[in-house]
Design a protein that fits this description.
This protein has helices spanning about 20-25, 45-55, 65-90, 115-120, 120-125, 130-145; strands at about 5-10, 10-15, 100-105, 105-110. By secondary structure, the chain is α+β, with helices and mostly antiparallel strands. It has a domain at about 15-90 and about 110-145. It has a two-stranded antiparallel ribbon. Strands 3-4 form a two-stranded antiparallel sheet. Strand 1 and strand 2 form a beta hairpin. Helix 2 (about 45-55) crosses helix 3 and helix 3 (about 65-90) crosses helix 6. The longest helix has 25 residues, at about 65-90. The chain is flat and about 70 Å long.
């Protein structure tokens, strides 16, 4: 059964949230799927991540069903990866925030994270996974305040 969301953009558009099978089709190579949680990602894991994604999903960023599904699947994958990482740590695990450099012995790694992302706890959380970063990069133009729809007309 599909869950619908109504988005208002000068009218009423109805999009449906991708279901578990849609997610599996989109990410056929990214995750190992199994009915056994010891072996791979279960349908319940995906459903949980989809539920979490619905809380923070900005449906107004989508212009059609295809882009709606794309964005929602990236956000779902982000939550799925974060949930799987948390599950592997157990109850004693902790959240690791973004790191700009790491070193072990004579080997070091460093990368730059834009201040706009570092300054926002939400953006920083999305930047923890490839999928969250991809979602963030896709919606970032809409968050800058430079792109927005305006309904109206001009007078003659």
């Amino acid at each position: 059964m599909r869950t619908w969301v109504f988005v208002f953009k000068g009218g009423t558009l109805a999009y449906y949230y991708p279901d578990v099978n849609d997610f599996k089709i989109y990410y056929t190579r990214d995750f190992n799927y199994s009915v056994n949680p010891e072996v791979g990602v279960t349908d319940g894991d995906i459903q949980k991540a989809q539920g979490e994604a619905k809380f923070n999903f900005g449906s107004n960023f989508a212009s059609d069903q295809s882009s709606f599904s794309l964005l929602f699947n990236y956000l779902t994958a982000h939550y799925l990866v974060m949930d799987m990482n948390a599950a592997s740590q157990g109850t004693g695990g902790s959240m690791n925030w973004l790191t700009s450099s790491k070193s072990v012995g004579s080997v070091s790694e460093s990368y730059s994270i834009p201040d706009r992302i570092l300054a926002s706890p939400i953006y920083a959380y999305y930047a923890k996974t490839y999928y969250g970063t991809k979602y963030l990069m896709l919606i970032m133009p809409y968050l800058s305040g430079q792109i927005f729809p305006v309904c109206g007309a001009t007078r003659p």
